[in-house]
Amino acid sequence: MAVPKRKMSRSNTRHRRARWKASAPGLVPVTVDGVTLRVPPHLVAAYRRGLLRPED
């Protein structure tokens, strides 16, 4: 495991951490019961099988 040789300043640490942000998932259009929904790609199969129901 890599171990830093010197202490990183608080300013550099916070500047580095600020770049790590979660991004919104890309949504895929899916038609269920004649209604087009936009859902995350990993849930497409569940919506098509009827395991998840669209919220009205």
TrEMBL record:
GO CC term, one of those recorded: ribosome
Q: Which UniProt keywords apply?
A: Ribonucleoprotein, Ribosomal protein
Q: Would the keyword Methyltransferase be found if you checked this record's keyword annotation?
A: no
Annotated stretches, region: Disordered: 1-23
Record has Ribosomal protein as a keyword: yes
Cross-referenced InterPro entries: Ribosomal_bL32, Ribosomal_zn-bd
Q: Where is the composition biased (Basic residues)?
A: 1-20
Family matches, as HAMAP family: Ribosomal_bL32
Classification via NCBIfam families: rpmF_bact
Query: Its family?
Result: Belongs to the bacterial ribosomal protein bL32 family.
Q: What is this protein called?
A: Large ribosomal subunit protein bL32
**Which gene is transcribed and translated to give this protein?**
rpmF
